[in-house]
Write a structure and sequence with these properties.
The chain starts with a helix and ends with a strand. It has one helix at about 5-15, and strands spanning about 20-30, 35-40, 45-50, 50-60, 60-65, 75-80, 85-90, 95-100, 105-115, 160-170, 170-175, 180, 185-195, 200-205, 210-215, 225-230, 235-245, 250-260, 265-279. By secondary structure, the chain is mainly beta. The longest helix has 12 residues, at about 5-15. It is globular and about 45 Å long. The chain has an 8-stranded antiparallel barrel. It has a 5-stranded antiparallel β-sheet with strand order 3-2-5-8-7, with no helix packed on it. The chain has 1 helix and 19 strands.
């Protein structure tokens, strides 16, 4: 799910030194049908809503990318970048990336679906009130405050559905005799609530990793746990995530992972914070 949490481990195992990179993430408010958004410039190509597109191997400098054409049925709400020097311009639909060293900059394009009225015009057809014979029993109307049957009770704390920003705090990775710090980073994404809040799915944090499914450990909802695994750059890995839900809009968490490749074992751990940024 969160590329910024997976990538440092793979990079150290592969002994690869990267230059800077620029990325654009597309987020749509609420539930919307699939849509593709086209960009040109330093980032060139199309990306689906809820995914990202990026380019790497960038030397320090000033770069730009612009949404081309616009997508029918969608309105651009904001452009926000996770770097103080970089910025987005809504009027031109352009992101300006200021790359320093091996910095990775991500700009989030937030859209909302515009309302389309497909209802037929004209007066509504008249309705005939139902009648009954004097001796026919009448159906009683339901009580206005009757509880809904069959609904599952949610945990006491449930994160809000919508767009969240993950701030990965400094962490550590120990590979044999080497002790390497993990630099802080940020990633936007979307949380979807399922099973009345007992299951939360994180998606859109990266376009090349699986969704992360988190489940509440008890009815308090104060803690969720989940695991993501699979292959990353040919390296099998599994990362365990823990969330401590402080409120419906703020989560603290930590992750742990242990990977062995070609006789070397790497152990990674880092804390992170998640903040709700929009519905």
């Amino acid at each position: 799910m969160i590329a910024a949490l997976l990538y440092p481990l793979c990079a150290q195992l592969a002994y690869a030194a990267d230059k800077g990179s620029a990325a654009i993430s597309v987020v749509v408010e609420g539930a919307a049908p699939p849509a593709s958004f086209m960009f040109e410039g330093i980032i060139n190509g199309s990306v689906m809503a809820g995914a990202s597109i990026s380019t790497g191997n960038l030397t320090p400098g000033d770069y730009a990318a612009t949404e081309s054409g616009g997508t029918p049925g969608y309105e651009l709400v904001s452009i926000s970048c996770d770097d103080d020097n970089s910025q987005g311009h809504i009027n031109t639909r352009t992101s300006r990336f200021i790359i320093d060293g091996d910095e990775s900059v991500n700009c989030v394009y937030l859209y909302r679906q515009t309302a389309i009225d497909n209802a037929p015009s004209g007066p509504a057809a008249p309705t005939t009130p139902a009648t009954s014979q004097p001796d026919e029993p009448q159906e009683s109307a339901p009580e206005p405050d009757s509880p809904v049957t069959g609904a599952c009770p949610p945990p006491d704390r449930v994160p809000r559905a919508g767009v969240w920003m993950v701030s990965n705090l400094p962490g550590t990775m120990v590979c044999g005799p080497m002790n390497m710090p993990l630099k802080p980073s940020r990633e936007p994404g979307t949380l979807t609530i399922k099973d009345c809040g007992w299951t939360v799915v994180g998606s859109g944090f990266s376009d090349d990793t699986a969704d992360l499914t988190m489940r509440a450990t008890d009815s308090s909802g104060s803690q969720y746990k989940g695991t993501i695994g699979g292959m990353q750059d040919g390296i099998p890995m599994e990362i365990d995530f823990t969330w401590s839900v402080q409120s419906d809009s703020f989560i603290t968490g930590d992750l742990h992972s242990e990977v062995t490749q070609q006789g070397m074992t790497c152990r990674m751990s880092r804390p992170y914070e998640m903040k709700f940024t929009g519905g």
